[in-house]
Structure formats: structure tokens, C-alpha cells
Design goal:
Layout: E1 2-4, H1 9-21, H2 25-28, H3 37-54, E2 64-66, H4 71-83, E3 88-91, H5 102-110, E4 114-117, E5 126-129, E6 138-139, H6 147-154, E7 171-174, H7 183-195, E8 199-203, E9 206-210, E10 218-220, E11 226-229, H8 230-234, H9 251-263, E12 269-273, H10 286-293, E13 297-302, E14 307-312, H11 322-332, E15 335-338, E16 341-345, H12 353-363, E17 367-370, H13 382-393, E18 397-400, E19 404-407, H14 413-416, H15 444-451, H16 475-480
Parallel strand pairs: 1-12, 2-3, 6-7, 8-10, 16-17
Antiparallel strand pairs: 3-5, 4-5, 7-9, 8-9, 10-11, 12-14, 13-14, 15-16, 17-19, 18-19
Length: 490
Amino acid sequence: MSLTMPPSKSELIRRIFIQAIQGKAGQSILLDSTWPQDVKDAWSLVQSYESKRQTGQHAAEDFVWEAGEAGTVMRFGLAFLVAQGCEGILKGSGRAHKRPIGDLVGALLTCGAKIEYLERDGFPPLRIRSSLLSKKDLVLDADMSSQFISAMVLVAPLLHDESTSKEPAPWVISWPSHQVSSRPYLELTIKEMISAGYDMEWNGDSIRYLPAGHFRSRVVSSQGESILSVGAITRRDFGASVALNQVEGDWSAVSFWIWRQSVIPLCHRLKICFLNSESVQADRIIMDLLPLLAPQTTCCIDPAECSLIWETHGLNKIIRTTEAIERLGAGHSIASKEQGIWRIRATDFPDMVPSLVMWAVLSGNPLDILGIGHLRFKESDRIRALSFNLNLLGILHENLDRDGLAIRPLCSWKAHSRQFVAGQTSLSDSEYRPIPMLRCFGDHRMAMAFSMLVLPDLSIPLDDPEVVRKSYPGFWKDWAKFGYALQSLN
């Protein structure tokens, strides 16, 4: 069976804003109807700016800028609009007004922005007034989101340099050491900027931007070793340009299929197309976790078709390739097993948490997921949303302070689900109970995660299945390839 993942919305959104910053929004960004909704929202915001700029109305104080539901679009959009001298009201939809933005607003104010909170301090909606941003060295608190830093990195080329020196001074953004949530997403921002021709240097807890391009672009890890050079980008599987038609598939979408495939296979060989095995997307970490959590599932790379093929073998036929064993080092840095309980620190890959929780439910493995407090500020409070639905299903779990979740299934999902399946158990009719309607809380990842529990004799009722359009419009069509129809899921 073959699936093609939707394009990485993290990569697409960054490229849309970079092209707009380069003044190419009106030339080369064409709407694609297959894009996830978040990407369409970013495109619409940039196009609104372009049309208003052309008529000189981008500084109309009563204009309403729409950012949609994504925190990424809201945060990147705020920095972009303010750096372009725009005025008006910036608002979002859904949970957008419950997602923090105060640290980014503070950074922009330091650089000369004029921004007012219209409802609650630290959260959208916002009123922005025309201003000229200047480069001021910043120290940002990024333990809640790396997007605050990414937003400032993206608009760096638009900021005014107050220096009177002939040689432009580097602009420095720093943060408390090792306090960056979702660090791989910041790395993605920097790589996209370098790919677009901007000179940047990352040294663990700071980023330096040099407008004139006087030194070779590179990223340096916190250990001081170079992890990216211009040469590394030019040999990427999908090209070095920031063209929107060269975006790799979304690894966050991959995780739902692979964790399900690893426990209850959907087919013998699952081929997923248009994936970059060397991707910097955060959820590519699944390649390192899989040999640990599901050693019976192996992966091989088909570079000719930019695809990966997963096969699941019986537990008595575990295969570990040399390549997989070499990858264990990266996996062990965030995963360990003590007294039969897996412990995973998922601070850098929060979008995979829902599918990891489902892996624990499917397999019956106890799992502690740590470092995920920032999940409370996603499209839903994902810790609460997961807990609510696990309660409905009777899966034992508990919160680990505000930072984690402990899953304690008593058996595999196939065994646990028998209580919901009429005619498949020895229970009398009075003891059988229908599976409850599960709530998505308006969150695409909740819908995709709980769909992983569907079985040939068990439908999974969801209150809002269409919410998947936010990141994966073709999700239910892909389920249909395995014989599961949408109507059986809602």
C-alpha cells in the first residue's frame, strides 16, 4: 500500500513568509487547493498584505487582518505585519486567542513596535500601529515556544539598522541556555532563511544575523559542532530553493500511520512517498524511536522515489539493521525504559505526542511522556483532550504535574476493545456497551490520533472528523485505502 503525505505545513508557512519578505508574494505564490488549512491561512494573510500594499491601504487603522487558528500564522503574521509598517487589528479564530504571544510582543516593542492588547494581556487579538522597527539585541524566553524566536528571525531582513558604522553589525537574538521548546522548528527556520540567501549563525543559545552576508552561513550546535552549511542545503533531496513546489512531506502526519502499523499492521508493506529521510522536521525522530519501541517494524529507504517503506514482522522475527542500531544513540537521548515503563521526553517533538499515546494504548505498553507542558496551548489543551477521551475509553492514566502524562493500559487495545464489540465476547447483551463518542476539541491531531484505534469490527465515533483539513485534508481518503470508510468513523 502506498500513501503520499501532505506537504510539511511548517516548511510551507515559513517559505510563504520568506517569499513575502523578499517581495515575491505577488509573483510566485499561487494558492494550492490541496494545502492544509493553516497554510491557506498564511497564504491569505500574505496576499491581503500584498493587495493592501499595492493600493497604499496597508496602514488603514480599521482594517482587520485574519490569521486563522494556527499559532504559527498568528505569531509569524504579527512580526511580518509590524515589520512592514502595517496598521489595523490582528485576530484569529478557534483557540488562536488562547495561545500566548506576550514574549513576541515584548520583543517587537523593544524594537520599536506599537502594539496594544484588545482583550487579555499576553494574548490576541491585537491592535498594531504603523512603526519602524530597529535592530535591538534581544533576550527572549523561549521555554513556551520557539516560534517567538523564529518570528523575529524571519523578519530580520526588514528591520532598520541604526548603526552608523560602514560595516553592519550582527543582530543577536539570545535566550536562557537550553530553554527552547520545539528546538527543531527553530532549526528549520534558520535553514530556510539560509537557503533563501540570508547569513545566520546559531550557537546553542543565540542567533547572529549579518545583513551584508560577510561570512559563510552556518548553524552551530550547542556542543559547538557544525550541523549545517550552505553545501548541506544544496544537496537536500528536494532542492535548495524556497520554491513552494519542492516541499517535503509532513513527518507529523507520518507518525499516525507508522505507530499504528507497528502494533496492528494495516498492510504488510506500507510505502509513504515524498519523504526526506534526512529531514530536519521534529517528528523525523520517529526513525530513531521505532527501533526502540517497535523493533519488529523495519524501514528501508527508496531514494529514487523519495519514499520510505515500513514492514512489520512477528515478534519472533525481529530484524535490526546496522543502520537502525546506529540510530539508537539519538533515540536513547530522549527515551529510556525503567522497570518496564517507557519514559520519553517529547519537548522537541510535541506534535507526535497524541500518536505516541495511541501507540501505548494499542500495544498495552506503560508510557510516561515528559516535557510537554506547552501542549496545553495548542489547537486544544492536548493534555486535557487526551485525558478526557482516555477516561471515556477506560484507559488508566494520570497527569504528571503540568509537564507530563502517564499512560497505564492493563492490556492491548485488541483485548480492551472487546467490551465495546457486540458478538465478539462472552459478555451478555446487558454487559456490552457501545463505544462512546470521542471529542476532538476542534483539534486535528485528536481526530487523527483516536482514528488509530479503529478495527475491522470496531468503528471509532468522532464528534468532528472534518477538523483534519487543518493539516491533512486527504486523511480519511487514505483510511479508505485500507478499507475503512469515513462514515464508519463518525
